[in-house]
Write a structure and sequence with these properties.
With about 450 residues, the protein is an alpha+beta fold. The protein is about 45% helix and about 10% strand. The chain has 18 helices and ten strands. It is elongated. It starts with a strand and ends with a helix.
Length: about 450
């Protein structure tokens, strides 16, 4: 029977909803053509074991249970007949029980139709008699099949149906759909999230961090400042994902690469499951701090120094808390206060980054500020060509033309070496670029 459409007043909808009785046997038979993870869905595994067992108790004993909503699809277009709008946890629980991964609770009591050998407490599906298995297979799930080609109607319905169990910010944002929501998921799969973050991806918490990092990079690309710090509050992230639903593949790939390249650069600074990345509010601060230091300063052992500094700074803060209030370091106390409140506020993050940077530089006064000029000019390369007698200063190969010359930093730019003639030598392209590739392999232990 058709049901009332779940759309705003005044909206002309093409959505049709029809109630259908799905026996468990049919659900299991069609499991391969049911998409449990459409873009708008929330993360699986939210239900506890106790909640799953209570659901199976209710289903088998014929208690009224909430309806399941399925979006009717075209198998030719999607490979599936249905996508789950609401009821993913209920369906997953049924599949888990049928697979033998879930048993009835210790206090389960069967009170359904008469059965010679009914299901019992602690039984798994494989423990059941044939008659008891038939009881499970004949259980009916109240399903609403939704037909519409408008994905926004499905996303609206999904959000409304989940008002009973409020979606968090990341789940709501994921339900928006579009290219940016997909890009957030893609970035959250980076090894940095899996290895370095000290908290699990419960209810899309890694997606929340990934969205913040993408937003920070997107804002940084629009400003000439070296370090861009902006609010990463929900309203701004929501608008960021919504307004970039149709971002081009080229721009999406560039944005994702900036984030993943920075995460790769940061990896040596942190241990696996690092305490500095133990809470959802920490990664964006560390991301900005690391980008600032790695972007502006150079030293051959810069990353190990940063790692030591963060450990020492945490100890300083802990020791500061042990002191009498009158003798505490005011700056450390302020940092602690800012870590507890306004964690997504630009002003709060700027203050904390300033404190971290000041204290890092105070303890590492020999690190070099990178020359803002990265490449040698045409005139400087000409001087190098003349000064070297038009020969490579390493292999002595003749450099017949200026185009054959590479201006090479003696002390590498990334280590703080200035882009000056005093820190330069003339090399042929092969020696310069090949030499650095070889050095990179040695640094990685590959050569």
């Amino acid at each position: 029977m058709p049901l009332r459409n779940f759309m705003p007043t005044g909206y002309v909808s093409s959505m049709e909803c029809t109630r259908v009785d799905f026996h468990v046997s049919r659900l299991n038979r069609e499991r391969k053509v049911i998409d449990l993870n459409p873009e708008y869905q929330r993360e699986g595994g939210v239900w506890s074991k106790a909640k799953q067992q209570l659901f199976m108790d209710s289903l088998v004993n014929r208690y009224d249970i909430p309806k399941i909503y399925l979006h009717k699809l075209s198998r030719d277009d999607t490979g599936s007949d249905y996508a789950v709008i609401d009821g993913k946890q209920r369906i997953s629980t049924v599949f888990s029980f049928l697979a033998g991964d879930l048993a009835f609770a210790d206090d389960f009591v069967y009170s359904g139709a008469a059965c010679a050998d009914p299901p019992k407490a602690k039984d798994r599906f494989s423990d059941l008699s044939e008659a008891a298995r038939d009881i499970i297979k004949e259980c009916i799930l109240d399903v609403v099949v939704v037909e519409t080609k408008d994905l926004e109607e499905i996303e609206e319905l999904f959000s409304r149906l989940n008002n009973g169990e409020k979606l968090n910010a990341a789940e709501t944002r994921n339900a928006f759909g579009g290219k940016m929501a997909s890009l957030v998921k893609q970035v959250a799969q980076d090894d940095f999230f899996k290895k370095k973050l000290g908290f699990l991806n419960t209810r899309y918490s890694h997606l929340e961090v990934a969205c913040k990092l993408l937003y920070l990079e997107d804002m940084a690309a629009k400003s000439p400042r070296k370090l861009v710090v902006v609010d990463v509050k929900k309203k701004f992230l929501d608008e960021f994902v919504k307004s970039n639903k149709t971002i081009s593949d080229v721009n999406a790939n560039k944005l994702a690469k900036r984030v993943t390249d920075n995460l790769k650069a940061m990896k040596p600074v942190f241990e696996d499951k690092d305490i500095e990345l133990a809470k959802q509010s920490y990664p964006q601060l560390m991301y900005l701090f690391c980008n600032s230091i790695l972007g502006q300063y150079g030293a051959t052992d810069l990353k190990p120094r940063m790692k030591r500094f963060l450990a020492e700074f945490r100890l300083e803060r802990l020791n500061n808390l042990e002191r009498d209030e009158d003798s505490r370091d005011a700056e450390l106390s302020e940092f602690g206060r800012l870590m507890q409140q306004g964690t997504n506020d630009a002003g709060s993050m700027e203050e904390r980054i300033a404190i971290l940077t000041k204290r890092f530089l105070r303890g590492n006064q020999d690190v070099q500020l990178k020359d803002t000029k990265r490449a040698f000019t045409l005139e400087e390369r000409w001087v190098l060509w003349q000064r070297s007698g038009k020969k490579c200063e390493k292999c002595k190969t003749k450099l017949a033309a200026l185009e054959d010359l590479d201006g090479d930093h003696i002390v590498w730019h990334k280590d703080g070496g200035p882009t000056t003639l005093a820190n330069a030598r003339a090399l042929c392209v092969t020696c310069n670029r090949g030499d650095k590739q070889t050095q990179k392999k040695f640094a990685q232990g590959l050569a």
